[in-house]
Design goal:
alpha/beta, Rossmann fold, Arc Repressor Mutant, subunit A, 5 strands, transcription, 283 residues, globular, 2 domains, single chain, 13 helices, DNA binding, RpiR-like, five-stranded parallel sheet
Length: 283
């Protein structure tokens, strides 16, 4: 999966002005763009061939030919999931349908951005890590807490704290082979970036989970993972981005559990039993 359209959309704000012109044209007229030559596209956008090539490289492709090939494949295999924005006064039926479609689209788009080699590196680091910390602010902090709870079930020492001051204190004690996973959809959250700076001063591996494209946070990472979201109007909060982040956390947790299954099975059984007793009120 490649997510060409999503890569361009999520990278838009981080692109140079001339690259942005080309990106905006491709996003608005994808079918026209894929049938143009590089010179025609450059002329239409009042820019140069070099700017078109730089855009292609910025979103992860070797050049214009590869971007066109991938975009063509993507347009020919468009998803059947149709998402429409929610507006004031919409019926309950329309809201239910569009919220569900949007969440499904966030998962599908996140899947399209996954690079399996990078994901494998992240899973490898998590498997070997004596300690795994999860850091995030706001809604990303809630996802970080969910991740920490999951990894506790498989006997990983893991920390997660929503307070940015305590995050920094915890990060200072990270050591070689430990892993810190930092979540921020924008990749520009000041508190999370400050925590990342502390992590970089240690020998721990830094994994980031952000939207696709350059950001302050992802540029600091040893391993970059990307999620996607569709958020606007009434859904302009962290709704779609949270779904993408939770999906990525579930992928990482399940992959680590699968790889270490024989080793972690006794702990899975113990934590499952302890949780059942807690829920039933039996000792």
């Amino acid at each position: 999966m490649t997510g060409c359209y999503i890569r361009i959309k999520d990278s838009l704000k981080s692109l140079a002005p001339k690259e942005q012109k080309v990106a905006e044209f491709i996003l608005e007229f994808p079918e026209e763009a894929m049938h143009m030559s590089i010179g025609e596209l450059a002329q239409t956008c009042a820019t140069s061939n070099a700017s078109v090539v730089r855009l292609c490289k910025s979103v992860g492709y070797s050049g214009f030919k590869e971007l066109c090939r991938v975009l063509t494949e993507e347009l020919n295999q468009q998803s059947s999931i149709v998402y429409e924005e929610i507006h004031p006064g919409d019926s309950i039926d329309a809201i239910v349908k569009n919220v569900c479609m949007s969440n499904m689209k966030a998962i599908e788009s996140t899947l399209s951005l996954l690079d399996m080699q990078t994901l494998d590196r992240a899973v490898d680091a998590l498997c070997k890590a004596p300690r795994i910390d999860f850091y995030g602010a706001g809604s990303s902090g809630l996802v970080a807490k969910d991740a920490s709870n999951k990894f506790l079930r498989i006997n990983k020492i893991t920390l997660s704290n929503p307070d940015p001051h305590e995050q920094i204190l915890a990060a200072t004690s990270l050591r070689k082979d430990d892993v810190a996973v930092l979540l921020s959809y924008s990749g520009e959250t000041r508190d999370t970036i400050e925590t990342a700076e502390v992590v970089k001063a240690t020998e721990a591996t830094l994994i980031t989970i952000t939207k696709f494209g350059k950001s302050q946070l992802s540029e600091m990472a040893d391993i970059k993972l990307f999620t996607s979201s569709s958020e606007a109007m009434i859904r302009s909060g962290p709704m779609g981005s949270r779904i993408g982040q939770l999906t990525m956390v579930d992928i990482l947790y399940t992959a680590v559990s699968s790889r270490l299954y024989d080793e972690i099975k006794p702990y899975l059984d113990k934590t499952r039993l302890a949780a059942q007793r807690k829920h039933s009120g039996k000792n």
